[in-house]
Amino acid sequence: MKKPAYKIAMLGAGNVAWHLAPALEEAGHEIICVYSRNLENAEALAQNLKTARATDFTDFTDFPADLYIIAVKDSVLPELLREAVFPAGSLVAHTSGTQPLSVFETNKNIQGAVFYPLQTFSKNTPVSFRNIPFCLETAHKNAMVLLQKTAESLSEKVYQVNSEDRKILHLAAVFACNFTNHLFGISAEILQQNQLHFEMLQPLVEQTVQKAFAQNPFSVQTGPAIRHDENTIQTQLQFLQNNPGYQQIYELLTRSIQQKS
């Protein structure tokens, strides 16, 4: 059975939109327009699409679509919703992990929804949407059907998740992704400053991730903190003496690990 093809307007031209818009086209949907406050950004994304028109106007009545996807920063979303004009009854979904469905309450003439891909996006890093979880939410039954079909055309992992649970997911993702990536950055910096290669850590990191998802992560914790190896801990803190910020991170994580042991 052929997957449904929808007309979709993409509001935003940042990292999420940069990956999501082409993926939707590849899944058989039509991106009819790309909006950005910076027209050059909208044009750059539209040029990578088949028929999309770039615009920096927030009146979308000339772009009737089955679905309007808002992929902008959380801080920009409420302002954009105040300014935007949609055809009456339009289905409008944001891609935020933290903004509640209630952000649409001031727009009585539209159907608000959430179309949240649980993934980190960088423009120059390819992603495969097949395994990316999509978290959907809306108060409108027919709208959920369209959201579900759209998400399923991209991914094998589609969930209905309410606003409160989505906030919890996002918090957990900050620890698992954003904070972990920052720690990778610290590791890379320490190695590079001492003429060592960050790539040497890759097998260790990959094994750590595999174990974390195969078992309870706390149960497979290793390292000097879990062993209460004070000699190693003090030696490593001494090595970080010229970077008090990294010392604090080291001490905080060491205490947290030991409290869980």
Automatic annotation (TrEMBL):
Residues 7-84 form the Pyrroline-5-carboxylate reductase catalytic N-terminal domain. Residues 132-257 form the DUF2520 domain. It comes from the Bacteria. PANTHER family: CONSERVED HYPOTHETICAL ALANINE AND LEUCINE RICH PROTEIN. This is Rossmann-like and DUF2520 domain-containing protein. It comes from Adhaeribacter terreus.
